[in-house]
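ugh ok fine here u go
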Amino acid sequence: MSTLWFVVVLVAGILALLAIVSIPVIVWLRRRGARVTEELTRELRHDTVVRGPEKALYRGATAPGFPAVKGNGVVALTATSLRFRPYVGTAFVVPVAEIVSAHEAKVFQGAVTGGRTHLVVDTRAGEIGFFVEDTAAWLRAIERAAG
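structure:
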């Protein structure tokens, strides 16, 4: 009985420690996300916005010069560019003139994630992958913007 009691106390202690560490990180990320969205919205106020800004998950790129680290952020499409601002990391801009097309893919760079569908933006240099809320709407918007 004492061994069982020790295991229960140990598990409870570990869970409490995880909660103490995780809660501030989650609060910080939510505040950071709101701040990044606000900054991108302010930056776009003089552009013709086609879609966004909205939450997205960057899934990597086959094109050179893009961040290797995947992550959460905000994506927006204007008449002249596709912009991604991560909550943490390096932002990037893809001129619409460089976008060839876009398509959906279950697998991107060998990764399948929970049955979600990737939005893959085809550029002259390679592909860029995202998870977005409404993939079909993004495909239509990119098709309209890229011609």
